[in-house]
């Protein structure tokens, strides 16, 4: 029988990789179908940031959930697993 036990730095790297992969898998994706760049206001907890999405670009946001304000003023609560398309300045779920 072969002992395959891993310890030390290798285990930490493996765990970090698994956690990083699972966080990105839970992020909401936003595709801009408009012909102009659109800026979203993303609010996570007490932090607000503007995220500009170029035409045809897809970005990942909100790995832990957030509120998003779209350019047309619509506001949406995201949990982090949605696929959103921006069309005419508003967001629609796929």
Automatic annotation (TrEMBL):
Residues 1-27 form the signal peptide. Keywords: Signal. It comes from the Bacteria. This is Uncharacterized protein. The lineage of its organism: Bacteria, Pseudomonadati, Pseudomonadota, Alphaproteobacteria, Hyphomicrobiales.
């Amino acid at each position: 029988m072969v002992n395959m036990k891993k310890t030390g730095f290798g285990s930490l790297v493996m765990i970090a990789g698994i956690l990083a992969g699972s966080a990105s898998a839970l992020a909401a994706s936003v595709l801009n179908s408009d012909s102009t760049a659109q800026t979203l206001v993303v609010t996570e907890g007490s932090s607000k940031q503007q995220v500009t999405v170029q035409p045809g670009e897809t970005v990942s946001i909100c790995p832990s959930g957030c509120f998003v304000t779209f350019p047309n003023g619509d506001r949406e609560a995201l949990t982090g697993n949605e696929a959103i398309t921006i069309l005419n300045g508003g967001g629609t779920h796929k």
